[in-house]
Specification:
Length: 423
C-alpha cells in the first residue's frame, strides 16, 4: 500500500485520532487507532490464545492455528469494539448512557462494557431472541427491552429511544471506533504468529474483517486476509460482485452471528479499498467444523465462530503447505440447539483443492438450519419454548449468570412508556 498522508492535529482540540482519520483518505480506521484501542483494552479484554490445531492439520495439509475468541469475556470478540467505542465517548455522553439493538453477542459485549464504566445501558432485543441470550445480557446489568419480532423492528425502536433519551447508539459493526476495537484481534494474531501466510475471518456486517485486515495489512503486508460468509447470508459477497452495497431480501443460515442482510457503509468501503477476497460456506460445512472443533480440539463454538475454519476444511481457501490462522469468533451456542445440529461423528475426508467444489459429505440426520430473515440482520429467529408471551415481563434473574455480574431487579421487561409510543 502507498504511504498514507498526515497532517498536524489542529490546535483547536478534538480527539487526535479522529483528526488523523479525517486526514487519511483511504481508510476509515488506522493502525494507530487500533494500537490505541489495544492499550485501552488492557485488563479488560483477554489476549486470547492463537493455538495450533494439530489434530485438524492432516485435513488441510498445512499448519493451522485457531484464534480463540470463544474464550474471550462474554464468549466472543464483541467486547473489544464495544468497550473501545464507550471509552472514547465524552464523559457527558457516558453519563447519559448507551443503547444497542441485538439478540446476540453484541448485546452482551455492550452490556459488559457499560458495566465496567458503571454507566446506564439499554439493550433492545426482539421478542424472538433466545432466552439464554436475554438472560446473559441482563446479567451484566443492562436494561433489556423486548420489542418487535424482528431485529429490524428492534433496531428502529432503539434508534428512536436513542434520540428521545439522548443515548449514544453503539453499532455492531459500522462504526470506526468499533472497527478499531475489533482490529486488536489482528494485532494479536501478528504478534503471536508473525509469519502467517493467511488469516481467515468470518464476516457478517464486516466490522471484524475490516479491523483485522487493517492491522494485518499494516504489520504483515505479505499475509493474505480472506473473509468468509454463510452462503445463505452472503450480502457482502454480492455487494463486492456488484461494486455497490446490496441488501438481501432474505437470509437463512444457522450462523446467526453473521446472518446480516447488508454490509456496513464504512466496512464495505474498507474491504473494497483493501481489495479483500471473500468465499462462502454452506450450513453443512459449518456444522462439520463445529463438530470437528468439539470432537478433536475440545472447543464449543457457535455457527459464526466456526465459519472461518469451515472454509479452510472445505478447501475454499488455499491451505496446503501454508501457515493459516482461522478466527474462531465466538462460542455462545445454546446446548439444546447444538444437540439438533450434531447427531453423529463428523466425517473428515481430505479437502478439495482450491477453486474446486468441496468434497461431498453426508448431511447429519438431525441437521436443521436455524435463522431466517424474519429475525433481521444477524439475530436468531427461534422462539424459545419457555419464553414469555409478547409483552410479558421477565422477573427472574438467571442463577448461572457470570461471576460478579450485577443483575438489576426486573431487568427483563418491556418498557410500557416506550411501548405505547411505538404504536
Amino acid at each position: 500500500m502507498p504511504p498514507r498522508g498526515r497532517r498536524p492535529v489542529p490546535a483547536g482540540g478534538g480527539h487526535p485520532e479522529r483528526w488523523e482519520r479525517e486526514a487519511v483518505g483511504d481508510s476509515a480506521v488506522t493502525i494507530k487507532e487500533i494500537k490505541a484501542a489495544k492499550r485501552r483494552l488492557s485488563g479488560v479484554a483477554h489476549e486470547t490464545p492463537l493455538q495450533r490445531a494439530r489434530a485438524l492439520e492432516p485435513l488441510v495439509e498445512g499448519m493451522l492455528f485457531l484464534k480463540l475468541e470463544n474464550l474471550q469475556r462474554t464468549g466472543s470478540y464483541k467486547i473489544r469494539g464495544a468497550y473501545n467505542k464507550i471509552a472514547l465517548l465524552p464523559e457527558a455522553a457516558r453519563r447519559r448512557g448507551v443503547i444497542a439493538a441485538s439478540a446476540g453477542n453484541h448485546a452482551q459485549g455492550v452490556a459488559y462494557a457499560a458495566r465496567t464504566f458503571d454507566i446506564p445501558c439499554t439493550i433492545v432485543m426482539p421478542e424472538t431472541a433466545p432466552r439464554t441470550k436475554i438472560q446473559g445480557t441482563a446479567s451484566y446489568g443492562a436494561r433489556v427491552i423486548l420489542h418487535g419480532r424482528t431485529y429490524d423492528e428492534a433496531y428502529a425502536y432503539a434508534r428512536r429511544m436513542a434520540e428521545a433519551e439522548g443515548l449514544t447508539y453503539v453499532h455492531a459493526f459500522d462504526d470506526p471506533d468499533v472497527i478499531a476495537g475489533q482490529g486488536t484481534v489482528g494485532l494479536e494474531i501478528v504478534k503471536q504468529a508473525p509469519e502467517l501466510d493467511l488469516v481467515v475471518v468470518p464476516v457478517g456486517g464486516g466490522g471484524l474483517l475490516s479491523g483485522v485486515a487493517t492491522a494485518v495489512r499494516a504489520l504483515s503486508p505479505e499475509t493474505e486476509v480472506v473473509g468468509v460468509q454463510a452462503a445463505g447470508a452472503a450480502a457482502f459477497v454480492r455487494s463486492l460482485e456488484r461494486g455497490e452495497r446490496v441488501t438481501l431480501d432474505d437470509v437463512h443460515t444457522l450462523a446467526d452471528g453473521i446472518a446480516v442482510k447488508a454490509p456496513g457503509t464504512i466496512t464495505f468501503d474498507v474491504v473494497r479499498r483493501l481489495g479483500l477476497r471473500m468465499v462462502t460456506v454452506t450450513d453443512e460445512e459449518i456444522v462439520r467444523a463445529i463438530t470437528l472443533l468439539l470432537e478433536r480440539e475440545k472447543f464449543l463454538v457457535e455457527g459464526a465462530g466456526a465459519a472461518a475454519l469451515a472454509a479452510v476444511l472445505a478447501g475454499k481457501v488455499p491451505a496446503a503447505g501454508r501457515r493459516v490462522a482461522a478466527v474462531v469468533s465466538g462460542g455462545n451456542i445454546d446446548l439444546k440447539r447444538l444437540s439438533t445440529l450434531i447427531a453423529e461423528p463428523a466425517e473428515a475426508p481430505a479437502p478439495a483443492s482450491f477453486g474446486s467444489e468441496p468434497p461431498p459429505e453426508r448431511r447429519p440426520e438431525r441437521f436443521s438450519a436455524g435463522v431466517s430473515s424474519s429475525a433481521g440482520a444477524g439475530e436468531a429467529a427461534l422462539l424459545p419454548s419457555d419464553a414469555p408471551a409478547s409483552g410479558a415481563p421477565y422477573s427472574d434473574v438467571p442463577s448461572d449468570r457470570p461471576a460478579g455480574a450485577a443483575a438489576l431487579p426486573g431487568a427483563f421487561r418491556r418498557d410500557p412508556v416506550h411501548n405505547a409510543s411505538s404504536g
